[in-house]
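@channel sequence for tomorrow's demo:
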Amino acid sequence: MPDKKTQVKAAFLPFEAIQFPSQQPRRYFDPDKMAQLIESVKHHGILEPLLVRPVSDTKYELVAGERRYRAAVQAGLAEVPVTIKKLTDEEALQISLTENLQREDLNPVDETEGILSLLSVRLGLAVQPVVSLLYQLQNQSKKKAAKNVNPHSLRTVIQVFQELGLMSWESFVSNRLPLLKLPPDILEVLRQGKIAYTKAKALSLVKDEETRKRLLQEALDKNLSLKAIKEKIARLKIQPETADPDFQIKEIGRRLKKAKPWKRNPRQWHKVREYLDKIEALLNEVEGDSPSPEGTATLAETLR
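structure tokens (generated this afternoon):
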């Protein structure tokens, strides 16, 4: 964290003297809430100074207060109050991330990505290794890990979540990391705060893109409840992925090899083999082939 002896100075700066950082944690600003803030700035000005750091003699980088900056521009102000503080790249990023993560209106997507970015800074790792580390910690806590995670990494993760006070790292891994695997169309409306996370997860089960987009739009237009969304999905009778022929064939073969009915239950295997023989006969008919010659492995024998 910043040195306590770091010089801090208050000032007013014109907008052209302030530049945005290359990495900005916050991606989405709610239009209605921004409109309210703009009106407030028009009537009362900027009540809390922006935090900036010097990057040259005349230029400053915005560290915290992007919403206030944007509202001030829209409100027609000529300059904004700032607190100038010398910070390293890492210190500036940590402050920016922490400030954004402590906002009540932060959507779950930006919040999740922000937490991962903060962990990335604190652990000195790229984001993807951080995700892998969190899953290793989860497996370790469930006694499924092949090896223990570095104790220092565990302490750092725990400390970050305690400082934020948002949730435990265990809850983050179980409930938030899966969020980033949602389809892009679902992820975008979730980022915009237009739909609840529970509804987004339910809609993500619809694998057909066109069907999912249609149902998503209906959920938004009619503000469907989670129960109503699940009922509509159930009526679609969608079985994720299993409608794909390649997947279905592969899955049946996998399950047969795992069950090994020829070893565990000869009577059941006899029934399974009858079906396999029928499938093989049908394939021969479709391909125009004659029955398999003697010595050629049958479908049933291939599975064994």
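heads up for whoever presents: The beta strands are 8-14, 18-19, 50-54, 60-64, 79-85.
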